Amino acid sequence: MFKSFFPKPRWFLLSVIFWLILNIGLWYSGGKSWGEFFGFAQGYADAEAIIGVSRFWQASALWFYVWFFLSTAIFWLFWKMIAPHKWLNWAIWGSGFILFNIWFGVQVSVALNAWYVPFWDLIQKMLTNNGGDISQLYQETLTFLYIAMVAVTLAVVNSFFVSHWVFRWRTAMNEYYVQYWDQLRHVEGASQRVQEDTMRFATIMENLGVELIKAIMTLIAFLPILFTLSKYVPELPVVGYIEHSLVWAAIIWAVFGTVLLLVVGIKLPGLEFNNQKVEAAYRKELVYGEDHADRAAPPTLKELFSRVRKNYFKLYFHYAYFNMVATWYAQLDVLYGLIVLFPSIAAGKLTLGLINQIGGIFDKVRESFQYLISSWKSIIEMLSIYKRLKAFESILK
């Protein structure tokens, strides 16, 4: 699954984590200002971020782009010397490009969130002062539109590239399994595992990995802002006054939902795994029946199909209460972010712009903490595929 696409997967993953932590540490311990040594204007790192699309090419952003490229190049050169691999370029440069797009998408969210305050405060000012200059509304709307155009363009480019990246990983797995087909073809459902499971595994792993990295980057970008904005919301419902209230409110709610769905859905990965086993056995007998008259007899097919039905009925039952709990949590989640602000709204401590900004940031942070909740069904499917491919690969040991 992994060594077909990544060089020495375990060490590669550990090196990725180490390299990310090192770069983040260097960046936030002064690295973001090192661009001054390469000709960037003095003090650019401390300049206030522009509210508008031009923030993406102001000096601090341009220095980050240079830093990211150089960091990726150094990492690629290291692995090219240590462990040359057929898919090294896609594994590192491809993954790096996806990682950069995720980071850029988070920055777009930050830019849009910063736009909320002047726009909604402008609306509030016009409503309370019996009107204002309509051209200001059009100007603010254009600011949003320019940022949104960047976001949409990036999303389309990233989606196109990710599709190719996933197919390369699938190709690598396919080549690896086909190389050992004489040993693997006797495993039940071997054809399905090579043809279908490799595709699904690469796609799900990519989606889960992207969402995890996005959640981490969102927390890095928005948590400091949420810490600052917590001063406008000193009290929470029921709890009362608490330091850094919004951060604690997001963490506690996300942990509660994660533990809840983890307990409720604990049986689903095993059932998904069993489901593929009984489906493979039924499919295999039907395929044999196409070429051999003594195979796929009605009693045999009836027995095999009864196992398929039994497992599906179990899945339906367990998914029923899992979906019920997940849906109720999602509905309560919609209200939770607003209810948290009720004491401060009632006390008149928030403007319309602050309400929208805090609500947007709070939702981003809460969603990031809820990564396991939003990805749980994909994780269940991925675990079942992983079990099948792991059992498949065990033949080669």
Task: Explain the overall architecture.
Pfam families: SbmA_BacA. InterPro entries: ABC1_TM_sf, ABC_transporter_sub-D, SbmA_BacA. With 397 residues, the protein is mostly helical. It has two domains: 1-41 and 49-179, no CATH class; 232-397. The protein is built from eleven helices and two strands. A two-stranded antiparallel ribbon has the order 1-2. Helix 6 runs antiparallel to helix 11 (371-393). The model has no long low-confidence stretch (mean pLDDT 80).
Note the overall shape. globular
Q: Structurally, how many domains make up the residues?
A: 2
Strand order of the largest sheet: 1-2
- The total strand number stands at 2
Mean pLDDT: 80
Estimated structural class = mainly alpha
Helix content: over 70%
Distance between the termini: 14 Å
Strand proportion: under 5%
Number of helices: 11
* Rg (CA only): 26 Å
Q: Could you name the ranges where pLDDT drops below 50 across 5 or more consecutive residues?
A: none
> Largest sheet, if any?
2 strands, antiparallel
